[in-house]
Amino acid sequence: MRIRFQAFCSIILVSLALGACGSGDRDTATPPPSTQVAVPPKDSGVAHRTLLFIGTSITAGLGLDPADAWVTLVQQKIDSAALPFRVTNAGVSGETSSGALHRIDWLLQQGVAPALVMIETGANDGLRGQSPDSVRANLDGILQRFDAMVPRPVVVVAGMEALPNLGRQYTQRFRALFPELAHAHHAVFLPFLLAGVAGVDSLNQNDGIHPNPRGSRLVAANVWQTLRPILDSLAGR
Questions:
Q1: Which of 14, 124, 174, 175 is most buried by its number of CB atoms within 10 A?
Q2: Which stretches does DSSP call E strand in the chain?
Q3: What string of pLDDT tens digits covers the 237 residues of the chain?
Q4: pTM
Q5: What is the spatial distance between Cα 56 and Cα 75, in angstroms, rounded to a whole number?
Q6: Which among 34, 97, 102, 210 is annotated as catalytic?
Q7: 16 membership: H or E segment, kind and range
Q8: 57 has catalytic annotation
Q9: Annotated active-site residue in 57, 93, 98, 216
């Protein structure tokens, strides 16, 4: 389906004004506990390594039944492939890159030692027109935290896009920061998380921002295409 950018921008801006992107900026709030998704049975006899997904309402699955969230669908793909990994969903609705940076230490203090970390942040910064330099600095700080871990987990950076009505220069700078930082920190770059979903009415909820169950399945497929070879390698296949 053809993406109608002008209509998409209008829906996004109205939704932002109504607070549809989540429950607000949680940069200074006490981080909520992360939610473990689709945990395999404890008596399976297999030691499962942790995959930590850090993100916004897109990762949290806002507006969806938990069973339809893309993170849950990725866990199902992992289980179907008989891979020894357990997903921890650390998505928080309304969070900016600054909030994600402030939350990293808290997450690591919970005893999480992930084999892989996927970072989806910046979408709310882009919606608010915040400086790409600020987003860059925050994401750089997040990546530095994981660079310092021993052993260092595999890190995946999910690319995000800014609205075209913010101007060509802004959108280009915003788009470029994700692959540039992934390269600088030797992380895996996953191009636009919502590719094929953003702006497509039939794949999004009424707010025009968050994927519906059909859209969520496409997001899971996007993520799985990147994750599957990495997980096979981590599992020694």
A1: 124
A2: 35-36, 49-55, 85-91, 116-119, 154-158, 188-190
A3: 444 444 444 334 333 333 344 444 444 344 444 444 433 444 455 679 999 999 999 999 999 999 999 999 999 999 999 999 999 999 999 999 999 999 998 998 887 789 999 999 999 999 999 999 999 999 999 999 999 999 999 999 999 999 888 999 999 999 999 999 999 999 999 999 999 999 999 999 999 999 999 999 999 999 999 999 999 999 998
A4: 0.83
A5: 18
A6: 210
A7: helix 5-17
A8: yes
A9: 57
Amino acid at 76: Q
Residue 211 near residue 73, CB atoms below 8 Å: no
**98: annotated active-site residue:** no
Q: 141 is written with which tokens?
A: 């700080």
Tokens 């008596």 -> residue = 43
From 217, 67, 188, 177, select the one nearest 119 (Cα to Cα): 188
- Cα distances from 155 to residues 24, 68, 91, 192, in angstroms, run 27, 24, 16, 16
